[in-house]
UniProtKB/TrEMBL annotation:
Gene3D superfamilies referenced in this protein's UniProt entry, alphabetically: NAD(P)-binding Rossmann-like Domain
Phylogenetic classification of the source organism: Bacteria, Bacillati, Bacillota, Clostridia, Lachnospirales
Name this polypeptide is given: UDP-galactopyranose mutase
Annotated ranges, domain UDP-galactopyranose mutase C-terminal: 148-350
GO molecular function: flavin adenine dinucleotide binding; UDP-galactopyranose mutase activity
Organism of provenance: Hominifimenecus microfluidus
GO cellular component: cytosol
PANTHER family with a match to the protein in the record: UDP-GALACTOPYRANOSE MUTASE (PTHR21197)
Record EC number: 5.4.99.9
Membrane spanning stretches: none
Family the entry assigns: Belongs to the UDP-galactopyranose/dTDP-fucopyranose mutase family.
Keywords, ordered alphabetically: FAD, Flavoprotein, Isomerase
Length: 368
């Protein structure tokens, strides 16, 4: 008899949801986390009374009622609606592209006028078969929106010119001919009151958690404690990178406390020109309608950066090379019958939070 039924590696959202379900089913669970804190990449920490999203802005949104009902058992959510603003050399535009954007760009006031403007620019560009991202964007939204709102931002994000990027990246662009600045088409949306870390604390209530514990460094000793392992770390690291390292795209954050009550009046402002080195600035207090200090604010500048082995992994690279390498690791994973590989790193895929919760709930249902 081992001491625990499950050893959960990683105290991120996947691990926390699985651990919570396992405990609720009467199983004994130990969670180990190599960072000095729980909550994985949704970790928020309080600065000046403001919940700061340490690994990038996180906005919860879902159409899945089951996920919403589940997660709201652990936190109240506020009514935050994601409505980013684009700043192009000091000109401000509403996002996603909608009637407000078209009015700001061209002074048009009706959908018909906006559609005519886009059609006119598309025709002038004379693109029939878009060969790259630039041509694809122009054929979808015209030259002005491409030049001011897509070109610089996309180049910074990918570190490559839009003429060198494939068109499929923006096969569809959210374009609306209504006055609607709500970025997500989701039935449920918001930010957990008190921050994501508190939400994860509640998921892990009554469960033993060991921080600063790298599973891979103490694998034999930890494996000896539990019947089964739920591994939410990087799949290639689990196998000692024996087939090579999977690649990621990275982001770097520079967080600053400013002696100002209000820096930009919105949670997210995207800098869409190519000269500004950051892609966007997040002002964290506006996720909570100005919570915290009346005299200070906390902002984070985001920079896209090339990923090198050893950097924090953010976005999996969904190209052929990495897809094929992941498929090889997946075969190895299938031979580990006492290990469940889950979450964004364990499955090497981009997962929104609601999808990670749904995946952990369904795995727990199969398992428990
Ligand atoms: P993680 O949160 O990464 O948790 C895995 C944990 O395992 C980590 O804490 C890690 O330290 C730990 N670990 C790894 N290896 C070991 C080891 N050897 N031993 C012990 N512990 C280990 N989703 C949304 O729905 N809305 C958003 O607005 C949104 N914004 C995002 C912005 C950015 C920049 C990024 C990158 C993602 C965003 N997401 C968003 C997605 C969201 O972050 C993920 O859905 C979520 O974090 C996935 O949880 P996870 O548990 O799979 O992974």
């Amino acid at each position: 008899m081992k001491k625990y039924d499950y050893l959960v590696v990683g105290a991120g959202l996947y691990g926390a949801v699985f651990a919570n379900q396992a405990k609720a089913a009467g199983r004994k669970v130990l969670v180990v986390e190599k960072r000095p804190h729980i909550a994985g990449n949704i970790y928020t920490e309080e600065m000046e009374g403001i919940q700061v999203h340490h690994y990038g802005a996180h906005i919860f949104h879902t159409n899945d009622r089951k996920v919403w009902e589940y997660i709201t058992r652990f936190a109240d959510f506020n009514r935050f609606t994601n409505s980013p603003v684009a700043n192009y050399h000091g000109e401000l535009y509403s996002l996603p592209f909608n009637m407000y954007t078209f009015y700001q760009m061209w002074g048009v006031t009706t959908p018909e006028q906006a559609q005519a403007k886009i059609a006119e620019q598309r025709k002038a560009a004379g693109i029939t078969e878009p060969k790259n991202l630039e041509e694809q964007a122009i054929s979808l939204v015209g030259t002005d929106i491409y030049e001011k709102l897509i070109k610089g931002y996309t180049q910074k994000q990918w570190g490559r010119s839009c003429t060198e990027l494939p068109s499929f990246i923006i096969r569809r662009l959210p374009v609306r001919f209504t006055f609607d600045n709500n970025y997500f088409n989701a039935l449920y949306q918001g930010i957990p009151v008190g921050g994501y870390t508190r939400l994860v604390e509640r998921l892990l209530e009554g469960i033993e958690v060991r921080l600063n514990t790298d599973y891979l460094a103490e694998k034999d000793a930890l494996d000896a404690l539990a019947d089964k392992v739920v591994y939410t770390g990087p799949i290639d690291a689990y196998f000692g990178y024996r087939l090579g390292a999977l690649e990621y795209r990275s982001v770097r954050f520079e967080t600053e406390v400013l002696n100002l009550p209000n820096f930009q009046g919105n949670a997210a402002v995207n800098y869409t020109d190519s000269e500004t080195p950051w892609t966007r600035i997040i002002e964290h207090k506006w996720f909570e309608f100005g919570a915290g200090s009346d005299t200070k604010t906390v902002i984070s500048r985001e920079y896209s950066s090339e990923w090198k082995p050893g950097d924090e992994p953010y976005y999996p690279v969904n190209d052929e090379k990495n897809g094929a390498l992941y498929a090889e690791y997946r075969k190895l994973a299938e031979q580990e019958d006492q290990v469940i590989f889950g979450g964004r790193l364990g499955e090497y895929r981009y997962y929104d939070m609601d999808a990670v919760i749904a995946a952990a709930l369904s795995r727990a249902e199969e398992e428990l």
